[in-house]
Write a structure and sequence with these properties.
By secondary structure, the protein is of the alpha/beta class. It contains twelve helices and 14 strands. The protein has a single domain, classed as NAD(P)-binding Rossmann-like Domain (Rossmann fold), CATH 3.40.50. The chain has a seven-stranded parallel sheet, with helices on both faces. The radius of gyration is 20 Å and the shape is globular. It binds nicotinamide-adenine-dinucleotide and sulfoquinovose-uridine-C1,5'-diphosphate (USQ). This is UDP-sulfoquinovose synthase.
Length: about 375
């Protein structure tokens, strides 16, 4: 299958591009490398040293003989995007290429606007590009579990059966996102659903939970193929952040009570979920929604798990309850359905002590790269 991976230089996109190439797909990457520029802006870095995109794909070719073509450019530049679509004629377009940090989107007005324009306009261009150049192409779009927020009823996969005043319908599940970034994903979902209806686009919206880990079999083949791993208060995510904090003797930064519950998955499952979606395309005109996570945890559960494994490895650290920089419920009901990907063959890698230990052992090799001033959160929602 000819597959474009947009955002293929990023944390989820790079291992996905390698994995799909390994499975024999003809893969190309679109990326404007802006994620590397946010590091410059925030004076931050990936804890793992990462090679340039050119070096990465060159090494991959050397090791496997497989070519991954790269197109450096912005989805917001429609002429560029259209040209790539004409050249590649993709059967699937995997879309990771967005500004994905909630705190980054809440820094100030400029960052909120940048996030929503980058994400919403980029996705609109992809929808127009598919319509005009490759109308049969299957859009596999990364959404987020955070689109739903934390309602006091179970979260379904995209749609909810509602009975109201004696009538029934199946409606899009209500969205209550918690940041301008998460809102951008809701706006994307609406635009995609609308174009499925009016133009017959085939699309899968993958409402992904928080991804942890960094390695896949492919990224482990050579240090040049290493994946990025974020730890700072803006781009670092729970669990990955806690594991890295434990290796530098930093208290684990639980925000508030820590009862915030979220869906999580291993990066190894992210790449497999994309493959499953690609191999089982949505029908023409179908807007299909999968909840892409494997387990639910509270933030405090995760901190306790990391604290235990870190102690066994000789790192004794405390769990701190910081004043929450976000506006969110810290104790709430949470129960989300995630059966569709499993029904299509996903076999989850669950979060065991061994998995935490393995990530910890990888990051400890690079702990001297951590810029300590970047660990505490410095963006507030108010
Ligand atoms: P990332 O920032 O590491 O990667 C995104 C990539 O897209 C970067 O390489 C960036 O340079 C590129 N990009 C951004 N805007 C672009 C544009 N306009 N044109 C071309 N390239 C552009 O993020 P990630 O963690 O790999 O996340 C990938 C996707 O998955 C995002 O859409 C994110 O919202 C979603 N997601 C991520 C997580 C997670 O825990 N990391 C969880 C759920 C959903
Ligand atoms: N949190 C802490 N301490 C920390 C970091 C986070 O307590 O040091 C808490 C946050 O307050 C929040 C939860 O952990 O309640 C998750 O925060 P996060 O930073 O790990 O994840 P989030 O901001 O939700 O965003 C990440 C990705 C985003 C993706 C989302 C999936 O950056 O791209 O969309 O996870 S989800 O959470 O399902 O929406």
């Amino acid at each position: 299958m000819n597959i474009i991976v947009a955002g293929g230089d990023g944390f989820c996109g790079w291992p996905t591009a390698l994995y799909l190439s390994k499975q024999g797909h003809d893969v190309s990457i679109i990326d404007n490398l802006v994620r590397r520029k946010y590091d410059d802006e925030l004076r931050s870095n990936s804890i793992t040293p990462i090679a340039s995109l050119e070096e990465r794909v060159q090494k991959w070719k050397e090791l496997t003989g497989n070519e991954i073509r790269t197109y450096e450019g912005d989805l917001n530049h429609y002429d560029f995007l259209k040209e790539v679509l004409k050249r590649e004629k993709p059967e699937a377009f995997v879309h990771f290429a967005e500004q994905r940090s909630a705190p980054y989107s809440m820094i100030d007005r400029e960052h909120a606007i940048y996030t929503q324009v980058n994400n919403v306009v980029g996705t609109l261009n992809v929808l127009y590009g598919i319509k005009e150049v490759v109308p049969d192409c299957h859009l596999i779009k990364l959404g987020t579990m955070g689109e739903y927020g934390t309602p006091n009823i179970p979260i379904e996969e995209g749609y909810l059966e509602v009975e109201h005043k004696g009538r029934k319908d199946v409606l899009p599940y209500p969205k209550q996102p918690g940041s301008f970034y998460h809102l951008s994903k809701v706006h994307d979902s609406h635009n995609i659903m609308f174009t499925c209806k009016i133009w017959g686009i085939r699309a899968t919206d993958l409402n992904q939970g928080i991804v942890y880990g960094l390695d896949t079999d492919e990224t482990q083949m050579d240090p040049v193929l290493a994946n990025r791993l974020d730890y700072d208060g803006v781009f670092g995510t729970a669990l990955n952040r806690f594991i890295i904090q434990s290796t530098i003797g930093h208290d684990l930064t639980v925000y508030g009570e820590g009862g915030q519950t979220r869906g999580f998955l291993n990066i190894r499952d992210t790449v497999r979920c994309i493959e499953i979606a690609a191999e089982n395309p949505a029908d023409k005109g179908e807007f299909r929604v999968f909840n892409q996570f494997t387990e639910e945890f509270t933030v405090l559960d995760l901190a306790n798990k990391v604290q235990k494994v870190a102690k066994e490895e000789g790192y004794t650290i405390d769990v701190a309850h910081l004043e929450n920089p976000r506006v969110e419920l810290e104790n709430h009901f949470y129960e989300a359905v995630n059966t569709k990907l499993r029904d299509l063959g996903l076999e989850p890698h669950l979060l065991t002590d061994e998995v935490i230990r393995e990530i910890l052992k990888t990051v400890v090799n690079h702990k001297d790269r951590v810029i300590k001033e970047n660990v505490l959160p410095n963006v507030t929602w108010k």
